[in-house]
Amino acid sequence: MKAVVLGGTSGMGRELARLLAQRGEQLFLLGSHEEALEKSAADLAARHPAQERPGHARCDLEHPEQFAAALDAADAALGGFDTVVVTAAMFATQDELEADPELARRLATVNFANTVTFCEHARKRLLARGGGQLVVFSSVAGDRGRKPVAIYGASKAGLSAYLEGLDHKFHAAGLSVLCVKPGFVKTGMTAGLKPPPFAGEPEQVAARVLRAMDRHRPVVYAPAAWSVVMQVIRRLPRFVMRRINF
Amino acid sequence: MSGESTLEGWGRLPVPGRELLSANLEEATRGAVLSRGLGRSYGDSSLPAEPGDKVVGTRLADRVLAFDAASGVLRAEAGLSIAALNRLFVPRGFFPPVTPGTQFVTLGGMVASDVHGKNHHRDGCVGPHVRALRVRLASDDVVECSPTVEPELFWGCVGGMGLLGHILEVELVLQPISSPWIVQDTERVGNIDEYLAALEERAGQWPMTMGWIDCLSRGAALGRGLLMAGRWATPEESHHRPARGLPEVTLPVELPNWTLNRFTASAFNAVFWRQLLWRQRHQRLTPYEPFFYPLDAILHWNRGYGSRGFTQYQCVLPRAAGPQAVRELLETLSELGAASPLCVIKDCGPEGKGLLSFPLEGTSVAVDMAVTPDIQRVVDRLNALVISAGGRIYLTKDRFTRAEDFRAMEPRLDAFLALREKWDPARRLRSAQSVRIFGDKA
Fold this sequence. Notes:
The structure holds two protein chains of two kinds.
Chain A: E1 2-6, H1 11-22, E2 26-31, H2 34-47, E3 55-58, H3 67-78, E4 83-86, H4 94-99, H5 101-128, E5 132-137, H6 150-170, E6 175-182, H7 202-214, E7 219-222, H8 225-235, H9 238-243
Parallel strand pairs in A: 1-2, 1-4, 2-3, 4-5, 5-6, 6-7
Chain B: E1 6-9, E2 12-16, E3 19-21, H1 25-28, E4 34-36, E5 55-57, E6 64-68, E7 73-77, H2 82-89, E8 94-95, H3 107-113, H4 120-123, E9 130-137, E10 142-145, H5 151-157, E11 165-173, E12 175-176, E13 181-189, H6 192-205, E14 208-214, E15 225-232, E16 249-250, H7 262-273, E17 281-287, H8 288-292, E18 298-299, E19 310-318, H9 322-336, E20 339-348, E21 362-370, H10 375-389, E22 392-393, H11 403-409, H12 413-423, H13 432-438
Parallel strand pairs in B: 3-5, 4-5, 16-18
Antiparallel strand pairs in B: 1-2, 6-7, 7-11, 8-12, 9-10, 9-11, 13-15, 13-17, 14-15, 14-20, 19-21, 19-22, 20-21
Helix pairs in contact in B: 9-10
């Protein structure tokens, strides 16, 4: 496997990149901060000295004009990638987003419009060489409109719908699309929030995602318990959703 | 999201507060007053003095920044755990130069506590094996310090409980090991005098020693227990299969407060003491994990003490005070009836250069105690004994020592406070423990 990871410098992306490197996969890291990329590449190299040190390039989801060049750099360094992983995204609490419409616009743009744009660049390159795997981190928050994640969840709902359509349309052409739906995971993104029951650790999520990648699943919930939780949430009647704060 | 958020040490006893987990310590520690790793210090060392204090959780900052297999020098972010380090480097023939009795600690926490291990009599604490630290000071400046660059600051950070600065990166020399297996020698010893003599004798021949004592034994059998010594096995001696890790069992629920009482504890010890059956002494090959980290097999074993929480009393008694000081301490523990079944005993080598580093040449005794209404009286009583013997307690385990008692134990305290005065005159960096023991503003 030759994989490009956008967002592999922290959280679940970092853990997934480590698992891939441990298996001997060739990696190329994309991210918004040069220093973070540098350190994460050093980390992967120090952990797995037998592997080639992963290359890296700047790619910020707020700057769509960087996407094509970043993917070209990855393609050149890896000699043609066959897997693209996107774990990067923006997060803010509902309170913060309600207080600042500009922040809400930015988040909706990054998590939906720009992520879709990045995926379009990526899937075209994959399809041009006969297919490959596109793994994108959406969220359980996209499964149902809910009070605490009304805006963030909407951005992820759009992304999940896009990924599902992509799977329907290009599966036969050899594109394997995996939509990852993490529940609450204890990472820097959720720092400061009180973890609910079934909160997961990034390593645990990464291991589950890797299994789903190997089996070419279209959707994976992680930690597993969230699949059941969301089944229930999706079935709750509206009058209940209006009352509860989940 | 709402709800009262709390933080707790390993001995539980939560206080209101929250930690800001971040993979980017350089950014997160700006303006923070305390850093904490995996929360394995027993008492209040890693707890905020006030609920609103900015406490940074370091465990997501776990990148290895460089490793040189020729020299064993490792540089990593402060949140890297020993468990992760072992998983990565034991298969490559390297081990931490010093490890405490759990691998669920971070590099930053290890340095801030200047931890010691089973090899203290030979290799000292972790401090002397640290080559450099990257530290965010109270002034918010970031500096690199080492035994040669800003040495005063460096030796203040080593064992300084995070009060001189936030440790961002640690450069440590790993030790090469000959295999992941340990040759372990276990002997049953009948009483405390035999015990101390045997410990001293073993220390001359074995790089690692420690022992478990039955704290409920009395009279002629006072201080009976098991003495363990170990060394890394050579490749020829070791099994060819890989050393299997510990099984992961989680204590899923809090046990009732009465689970550990005098009767269950006595029963436990009777079984424990007889684990060697009829043999007085034997040697076997064991993987490194059960040897170094026996309790790590049960995740969350701290729930065994119930909702009341517990503390660990660990002190070191100087060699000069003689075996009678150790005997007196065990007698007092037995008389107070406050102790858990086992206490851990270890001979320590000379005092290190860390300004508040715990060990000194003598005998370290550590015992877990449930937090009962009587706990303050028990700790005061034990502290009085330690003071008269010229010993000291270990801040990393402590929750109940009084400021005046700590002062009486610690001749280096003024030097430490002077160093804080220099680097943090407003005493901006603080913890619940520093308020209690160093009199920082609450």
